[in-house]
Structures
1.
Amino acid sequence: MPLVHFFETSFGRTYERRIILARVEDADGAEGWGECTVGESPSYCEEWTDSCWAALELVLAPMVVGKEIESAAKTWDVMKPVRGNRMAKAAIETAIWDLEAKKLGVPLWKHLGGTNREIACGVSIGIQDSVEQLIEKIQTEVDAGYQRIKIKIAPGWDYDVIKQVRSQFPDIKLMGDANSAYTLDDIDLLRSLDEFDLMMLEQPLPYDDIIDHAKLQREINTPICLDEPIKSPDDARHAIELRSGKIINLKNGRVGGHSESKRIEKICRENGMPVWCGGMLEAGIGRAHNIAISTLAGYTMPGDVSASKRYWHEDIIEPEVTVSANGTIIAPDAPGIGFEVKRDRIDNSTVKKWTI
């Protein structure tokens, strides 16, 4: 699926997404859909599109197919003997949650235990060709009502860029996302960002670290938001105990699906750690699952769950995801993910299909 506009981070520039979808069917013929939100290369994490395809085809799907599972919440336990591969697992796990909610005739967000049907939305804006282009894009999103603006930063695209953005938009909720582009050697630069009153600085240090982040958080006023290193409930607990940051970006795919997201959300909520739902350039099915999980009580900050039209000329669900003028999305009433999957759209874009 080609993006409406390229998306650039410290990892590189993306023009199109190669997406794996999982469809599960039970003995009654009912179906559920999940999306593997992994990237095309192992840059964000160790998993990538082709590794997930292999994991799904050769290991994970055979573990699940033909099994009688007590509930969707138990799906994680069936796949637990396989270490890691959380994004691949999430594709199956979320699809089974969708299936179960549809069979029960309830919206997925209610089935997950959501309490906030109307969720606040922010946007993530990648590195642009110029600061002027970035400011223009921010203005477009502010005009659209989004409640928080996240901009990607990297060495050489940080202090001066944020200074110009803050000068142009002194009052917006603004955050910077570094995608692990810095080290403790950059502490003076990162401390200098305190002057811009950022909501948070997301994952400035290496992707697997919570030790140096604790050192950095003691040296800067800007709240650190952890992303990549939080893959499990234990990771969240350790980060809270170490005071490695003050906020967690809780991505459904990164942690393995809804059941693990719920466990992490509970730990964070009970310890006063705010969470929000991060995005991975999902198509409509993944976006629908993000909407559902974002209704849990612990998701208290605007997430990266934005409108379909920001990314796709045509999404794979209908109706497409839209955002209100106030920068919110209302979770749908229909059973399951609450959106119809556009099978023709998917079939026309499919390059590989496998059934077990």
2.
Amino acid sequence: MSITSGLNPKIFYSTEADPEMEKFNTEIEKTLSKLPPLHSLPPQVIRDAREQGQSIWGPFKILDEVEERILKGSSGDVPVRVLVPEDIKGVYLHIHGGGFMLGRAHHYDELMAAIAKMCQVVTVSVDYRLAPEDPYPAGPDDCETVAVWLAENAGSEFGTDRFVIGGESAGANLSAVTLLRMRDRHGFSGFCGAVLTYGGFDLSMTPSAKSWGERPLILTTPLIRWFHESYVSEDKITDPDVSPLYADLAEMPPALFTVGTLDPLLDDSLFMYARWIAGGNKAELAVYPGAIHGFNAFPLKAAGRANKKIADFIRSCFKASDRCY
């Protein structure tokens, strides 16, 4: 029996980052070093700046073709944003990032429009409740509500019962938690794939997150800690419903893990990828040399490659056999 490694050590060499990425990282670090740390500001101040396009992420565009809906849940109404293309091969359930505290579904309209077009999927984006005003389990409850609604209604609404789930950062965490809840609470294992992009899967913090320090490449160790402390109490930090790295990961769909080597959450993806495979599931790990947290939201060559790989993965999920897994 031969044993092969799933990682090429070269991708972690600093010399492997392309010049464009290195220049971008220098500019981001220079810009953020002049600003007050996010964790020193009230959450609403950060949210207001984002709504005005005055954040590192720049302006966003709200698209008229995206439909706003309100779904009824046991914990209250859950807003979603739905984009329906002409040709439908499946549904992509998207859960945005933002440390469980920031971000809104409408910030991702342009991304969802691109995915809908490239992959011929209905996109459903969850506008889940945010901490600290609505801490755990509000966010996961809202995501579960939408997943249950899709399982029960997508066939009649969109003419398909094939689903892929995914998100970035905290959204990747909530995607994994939603898969686990659907399996354990509803006996549903009908997702065809999971797009888990630079997720935080252990809120007690993996070594890369703990040791990163205060270098301001989007995330810092104090900022990660602030997100987690605002979201959930310390006694629940390693509960699998909070930190899915600790969950039984059997019967999970094929997953694509995406992360950069200069992301404090690097270990989260490395560890979760290994545990996903150990659970008997298919998974692919895409590690981008020199890439920082959130890199694929910027106009970079590496971002283009990463986003194409994500789109290819989503399309591949709907080309598989009738049973998703």
3.
Amino acid sequence: MPKIDPYAALRFREFNIFLLVRFAMVFAWSMQFIVIEWQVYSMTKDPLSLGIIGLMEVIPAVSTALFAGHIVDQKEKRNLLVKCIFGFSVISFGLFILSLPSIVSEWQTQKILYGIYFLVFLGGIVRAFIGPTIFSLIALIVPKKIYPNAATWSSTTWQMAAVLGPALAGFSISLIGVHWSMCVIFGFSVFALISLSQIAKKPILNPKIGEPVLESLKEGLKFVFGTKAILGALTLDMIAVLFGGAVALLPIFAQEVLHVGAEGFGILRAAPAVGAALMMFGSTRFPLHKNAGKKLLFAVFGFGICIIVFGLSTSFWLSVAALFISGGVDGISMIIRQTILQLKTPDHMRGRVASVNSMFVGSSNELGAFESGVTAKLMGTVTAVVFGGTMTLITVGLTAFVSPSFRNLDLQKEVEDHEADELPKQ
């Protein structure tokens, strides 16, 4: 068996630029979400308002996802990503304007709140396009034999940005306030736009350019629902994230349960991403291909346990530890899921498959935020989190019982086959 090269994908210049762009965008997006959460809860003191933030993003993201996947498969990926980042920049600038001290002091709270919700709604539309575009672009930058390594580095970059974005958001809110924190976010989006210009345009690999939308969407859905490995991974992660979305309630835990303020909130919010980033760095040297199904099930089970511990904890550092470990096992889940998608998706269908992924997993973050907000309103914050973790454990048990083929999923041979296919070209 050939020696594992943990830096294989990093040997491609455009992939390094791609990682820089992805880091800047995820950093800006995650920081923006945290700043919005803090601002909205500070204005309303209502946990349901946090759930509404997620709902405002998930409605357009889900409703336009399939159409976005069709467009991504029909268009050139680099230019499409430029348009997505430009759209995000406009939204972040709008939030910067809405947080102006003069507007905050003169406008009614409800009016500012509606403006924030509207911009978050527009952000959901942008997100519906940006996920499939990024997923498709990776496959055009690196050869197939290093897709798993590229997926690992891409996910690691995502997590690193998710570590620093929330952490900086907490400290930034404390040091320079919401308004100038929004300015920092806008600056990162502009940086991403400039960096992206260093990546060349890519060919369109779809042989069915101009295919009717309905036929295209039908083909994409048929592929996803007919591929058990993809369907199983997406379903498991969707339900786990949906019911384990305790992160949406962190402003409440920080302010009313743990009493740690903005700095502690930033640490809590960053803890899962730190754990995930460390796990992902490790996975570049110790790949997760073998027995992928079992590893994914164990990872999601561990995630559920950590969420329950976090919900019951009244100690700040125990809560941080629970979130840290939850991030580590969630990182394993993310890497395995992305590897499954990269290895089993044909090039001409990447946009549509990624759009279904965004509906299943990406949007479940916002639906999970809404579910957490509603259950916190109905049964209390701590009970809501424990309930979510328990539902995650039940989901893992049911998946392992009803789907032995997914439980026994192994990607090792498929990875080796891709390496063998590429060998004569070297």
